[in-house]
Design brief:
The protein is of the alpha+beta class. It has 2 helices and 6 strands, in the order αββαββββ. β1 and β2 form a beta hairpin.
Length: about 150
Amino acid sequence: MASLNTPRKSEGFLYPIPFVELLGFNLAKFENGLAEVKFDPLPEHLNTLDFIHGGVLMTLMDVAMAAAARSIDPLLSVITIEMKTTFMQPAIGKVITKGRLIYRTQSTAFLEASIFDINNKHCAHATGTFKYVHNKNQANLKKPASN
């Protein structure tokens, strides 16, 4: 069994993101203001009720929204300005997070994300505002995820 001491591999992201790699997120879709991030949790990602910890779920939605914002212009990065999260029901097992760009200006993106379990139950929802910034790591650009 993998653990937090065993490096996990994240796939699909354009730039190395150490925290995302630690958690083991995988970017499955990255196009036209849409992103999908898949996650298979380890025991270390759970809370005392054996549900995926809320902090992990918030990170999933933050990453999915950031990816959706960046899918319009991959050479830019984004930073989170604000995020509102609603937890609707426990997330158990593998989940998929869908991020969507709602509106953008030259410097700001407004997004939403939702997490669904393997039975397509809607577990959590978030909205966020992100600021576009230039990425100092453009030399580390990877090939985008294939769709």
